């Protein structure tokens, strides 16, 4: 745990007792603050009381006695409308913080020689894999590394800072909205496409939230920006004044260094074109040797990881070795098992069309399990990839609308995961060829599962129930 100083003996309102909220309360208490907790969930309040926290109904509390509000990233700060606690905090004239901002203040309060290095990763897609990959590369290079944030462990539940430590932190747009002084040594924006627009008032607000990852960086800090989408390219253009502290990441052939506009002349570049990793045209490695990083999207993740590792002093050879030995991440293009000549790929993390595009593009042909709670646009943007779909198996609320959108592409409505896996496996096996059954839902999981992890585990269970050999045993 990372104790949070600065609020000794002062009451701090904490709303939302999920992973980040309860962890923040523990960290504040360890630092001497007096956290006062509330959540709409009775079970969450009971858990907090069982831990000895003060639980008080914040709807009727005296807010003049609070020094700050620590708000769960799940509660809206601005859109569709501010959470009621936001109004009370503003009326009381107190600051509104999140767990990432508390972590930032802990790091900033340390003597300069004791401060850890911080790598922060955000983006619409790829941030979890990039976070895990960077953490792996740094660990393989013998560095002290703590990985968390929006992935796995809440940031304040990580070990306390020590000299020479490195924190690799995934941060969401919701968390960035609650930051004012967060200043990572290496800040990464993987990519940007429409997502969570209801929470940010549209694409402009979403992009502005992501841009906050760069806003407080000091001299010497590096900004790594993916420019394979127009939003990322625009953000890179806004950062050109950083000169040699800006590194551009691309997987597109038309973004060769010589073709970039003059404004980027002093920026660095790492490219991952056709699976070949290079820096300013100098060959680094062939990513086809990295078995857990298939597809162009993973090539982009590898480029970010390589650039981040090098920025932190990892040698070229050590960085390459880390990339090539990465074991992969659950629910993200994860090979879960094999049955005969059929491989089963769990990409449950693909909760929008752009993420599903990465998976569909990685296979010339697949039996696609798709559906859930549709997001804006559904699968409209994937039409160019429909010819790669041997057959689609539709689940969840979106089954009907997605079926209509697929048109002449072979498809059937399966309804639930077990039925979809069984039908897809039978159809794939009937060809007698090497085939792929791909779960890449292009939709949220909340119609049938509490989160994408639970959906991915349901897929894994259904695959193994058919008698498939687990990937780690094959």
How do the helices and strands line up, and which of them pair or pack?
Elements: E1 11-15, H1 19-30, E2 34-38, H2 42-50, E3 54-55, E4 66-71, H3 84-92, E5 95-97, H4 99-109, E6 117-122, H5 127-140, E7 144-149, E8 165-170, H6 173-177, E9 186-189, H7 197-200, H8 203-211, E10 222-226, H9 230-238, E11 246-250, E12 268-273, E13 276-279, E14 282-286, H10 295-311, H11 316-325, E15 334-339, E16 342-346, H12 353-361, E17 366-371, E18 389-395, H13 399-406, E19 411-415, H14 417-429, E20 435-439, H15 452-465, E21 469-470
Parallel strand pairs: 1-2, 1-4, 2-3, 4-5, 6-8, 6-9, 7-8, 9-10, 10-11, 11-12, 16-20, 17-18, 17-20, 18-19
Antiparallel strand pairs: 12-13, 13-14, 15-16, 15-21
The whole-number mean of residue pLDDT values reads: 93
Spatial shape: globular
| Total helical elements | 15
**Rg:** 23 Å
Please give the largest β-sheet: 9 strands, mixed
Low-confidence stretches: none
Strand content: 15-25%
Structural class category: alpha/beta
**How do the strands line up in the largest sheet?**
7-8-6-9-10-11-12-13-14
User: What's the end-to-end separation, in Å?
Assistant: 38 Å
Topology, number of strands: 21
| DSSP helix fraction | 25-40%
């Amino acid at each position: 745990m990372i104790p949070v100083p600065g609020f000794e003996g002062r009451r701090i309102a904490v709303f939302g007792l999920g992973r980040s909220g309860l962890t923040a309360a523990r960290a504040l208490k360890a630092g001497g603050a007096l956290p006062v907790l509330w959540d709409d969930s009775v079970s969450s309040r009971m858990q907090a009381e069982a831990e000895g926290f003060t639980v008080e109904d914040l709807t009727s509390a005296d807010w003049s006695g609070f020094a700050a509000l620590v708000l769960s990233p799940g509660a809206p700060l601005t859109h569709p409308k501010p959470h009621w606690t936001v109004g009370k905090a503003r009326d009381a004239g107190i600051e509104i913080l999140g767990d990432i901002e508390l972590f930032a203040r802990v790091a900033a309060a340390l003597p300069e020689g004791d401060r850890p290095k911080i790598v922060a990763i955000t983006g619409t897609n790829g941030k979890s894999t990039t976070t895990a990959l960077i953490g792996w590369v740094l660990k393989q290079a013998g560095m002290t590394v703590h990985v968390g944030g929006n992935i796995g462990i809440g940031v304040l539940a990580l070990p306390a800072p020590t000299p020479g430590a490195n924190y690799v932190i995934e941060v969401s747009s919701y968390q960035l909205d609650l930051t004012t002084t967060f200043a990572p040594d290496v800040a990464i924006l993987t990519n940007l496409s429409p997502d969570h627009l209801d929470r940010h008032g549209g694409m402009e607000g979403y992009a502005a939230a992501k841009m906050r990852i760069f806003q407080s960086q000091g001299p010497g800090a590096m900004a790594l920006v993916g420019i394979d989408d127009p939003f990322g390219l625009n953000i890179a253009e806004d950062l050109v004044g950083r000169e040699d502290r800006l590194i551009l990441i691309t997987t597109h052939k038309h973004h060769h260094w010589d073709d970039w506009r003059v404004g980027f002349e002093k920026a660095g570049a790492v490219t991952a074109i056709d699976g070949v990793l290079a820096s300013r045209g100098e060959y680094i490695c062939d990513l086809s040797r990295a078995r857990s990083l298939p597809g162009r999207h993973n090539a982009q993740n590898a480029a970010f990881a390589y650039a981040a590792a090098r920025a932190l002093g990892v040698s070229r050879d050590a960085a390459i070795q880390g990339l090539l030995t990465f074991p992969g991440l659950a629910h993200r293009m994860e090979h879960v098992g094999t049955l005969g000549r059929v491989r089963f790929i769990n990409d449950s993390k693909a909760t929008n069309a752009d993420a599903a595009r990465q998976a569909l593009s990685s296979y010339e042909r697949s039996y696609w399990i798709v559906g859930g709670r549709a997001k804006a646009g559904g699968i409209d943007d994937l039409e160019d990839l429909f010819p790669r779909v041997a057959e689609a198996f539709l689940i969840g609320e979106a089954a009907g609308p997605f079926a209509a959108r697929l048109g002449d592409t072979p498809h059937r409505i399966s309804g639930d995961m077990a039925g979809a896996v069984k039908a897809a496996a039978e159809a794939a096996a009937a060809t007698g060829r090497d085939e792929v059954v791909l779960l890449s839902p292009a939709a949220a999981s909340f119609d049938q599962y509490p989160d994408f992890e639970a959906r991915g585990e349901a897929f894994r269970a259904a695959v193994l129930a058919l008698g498939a050999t687990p990937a780690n045993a094959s």
